[in-house]
Amino acid sequence: MAIKLMLSLALVFGFASCSKNSSSKGKSSATGWNLNDKKGGFQINTKFKKQAPAPGLVLVEGGTFTMGKVQDDIMHDWNNSPNKQHVQSFYMDEAEVTNSMYSEYIYWIKSVFPPTEEKYKNIYDGALLDTLVWRNRLGYNETMTNNYLRHPAYAEYPVVGVNWIQAVEFAKWRTERVNEGILEKEGYLKKDAKITQVSAEKSFSTETYLNAPTKTFGGDDKIVLKGKGGKAKPTKVAGSKGQAGTTKQPTGIYAQRSSGLINPEYRLPTEAEWEYAAASDVGNREYNNYRGKKKYPWKGSYTRSGKRQVKGDQLANFKQGKGDYGGIAGWSDDSADITNKVKSYPPNDFGLYDMAGNVAEWVADVYRPIVDDEANDFNYYRGNVYTKNKIGDDGKVDLVTSENIKYDTVSNGRIIARNLPGQITQVPVDEKETYLRHNFSQSDNINFRDGDKQSTRYFKFGSEDGAKELDTKRMYDSPKNNVSTDSLGNMTRKFDKSNKRTTLVDDHSRVFKGGSWRDRAYWLDPAQRRYFPQDMATDYIGFRCAMSRVGPKTDMKKRAKN
Fold first, then answer.
1. I need a surface site. Which of 160, 186, 208, 295 has the fewest CB within 10 A?
2. Are the CB atoms for 24 and 46 separated by under 8 Å?
């Protein structure tokens, strides 16, 4: 017994000793070495507590839900097959991106890449919204055409006339500006340089800063500071007897992922995230079950409020019926004829506004009629195209410049910049990343298990004419139009005139969710889904941004009915 007691005490003492080497006390729990030593070594933020919400975002705690569950399916198009999914916690814009927010983006683009210079003209033009979406052959809407984006009366209204590509580019821009502001505040960037010293060849990119900080802002070390406030200085190390001393350069002089300062990227929410956030079934939760079904983002099966103070008022902005976009004058109804100011209606149980009505919203996914829950039921998303940083001959990352910037000509002839000067050039992943992997085998995964060569019954492996036959019998045989622009800026259109095409769905069709001011109540159900070409815009589709959550699922302590 005495021996067993001594062994037990030894084990307890051993475990206690290990716990004292916790990294929270400034020592590595793996080696016992000092962390963040000024003399060098491993650097990590040991004081990090949790991810701070970025501007405009609120936390959506993840969980399980039934995606595609609708009360009405009058279209009978197999679009909403119910399937169980789990969504990881993420952040989402409290309300839709507004005209004011998008105008700030246009202003920055115009200031940094002046359209008066020919080499930057297409960058600015590609970011401009399509304000002509308001026009109607038999309707007078010129007031919105001329005023909706820029007039202060509409500043807090949701932006429209934005295509999916532009929404993605806005999210990228927002990522850069938010992280730039954080690093300036923390002393890693010169104060106000983002306003007074930014130019086409001297701008901030998050990925460039993380991978090659000395190339950020065009390599200007008076802007990109070494350490907080540029205080990091070399240290002199005394030499041993008969040996000269050395100078040691400081470590950890630039912010890194391990600093805990830099936010994940702003992006469009996935369809699963958007639907989960809109449905907000958390409001019907009892213990670990959902009690009842919510047809809309709010409780109940009706679109009008039952509260005494506002009884009868609509809970969202949508089309009431033929020729009725807002009710009779003098009655509050939904208080709007076109769009309405964001946050004009009560939020849902996640604190998100306008998840039904006002404008429909772009999500990240490529459209397919079904959701392949047999392949994945966690953070479902169709549209992954994996890329990596391009490495130049000198072994360093290759940056985009005004000379090598790439442009895409979309189906309507508009030219849109693929990337901006100062960013790192992206290339598809290759066999170095895919060899012997089981989780992915190629860069473009849009057609995985749905129309790609491996999943079509007509694919002839190794056949010389297999590719030709595959094109005629492909699952989504949408028209293959070709629009290009020559060196003089003239548009060349080559239309697919085949009369055998059976669908408009292709790899450029993107999902949009939620009803809008133009839609009937049927489309307010979060599970309803539609699609639209990613390079086209309307007067009823807008967007909001999301951001992934790093760290724990929630900030709350779990209780039975919290």
1. 186
2. yes
Strand extents, DSSP E, 21-82 = 57-60, 63-67
- What gap in Å lies between CA 434 and CA 222, rounded to an integer? 41
Residue 516: which region, alpha, beta or left (left: phi > 0; alpha: psi -120 to 50)? beta
For the chain, give the longest Cα–Cα distance: 97
**HEC per residue, 506-529:** CCCEEEEECCCCCCCHHHHCCCCE
> What's this model's pTM, rounded to 2 decimal places?
0.89
Is residue 171 scored above 90 in pLDDT?
yes
| Residue among 489, 404, 383, 480 at smallest CA distance from 168 | 383
**Calpha distance 488→482 (Å, rounded):** 18
Backbone angles phi, psi at 513, to 5 degrees: -125, 160
Does residue 520 register a pLDDT over 90? Answer: yes
**How high is the pLDDT of residue 14?**
46
Nearest alpha-carbon partner for 471 in 498, 440, 492: 498
List the one residue out of 400, 383, 342, 318 whose CA is nearest residue 534. 383
Query: Residue 2 corresponds to which tokens in the numbers above?
Result: 């005495």
Helix (H) or strand (E) holding 92: strand 90-93
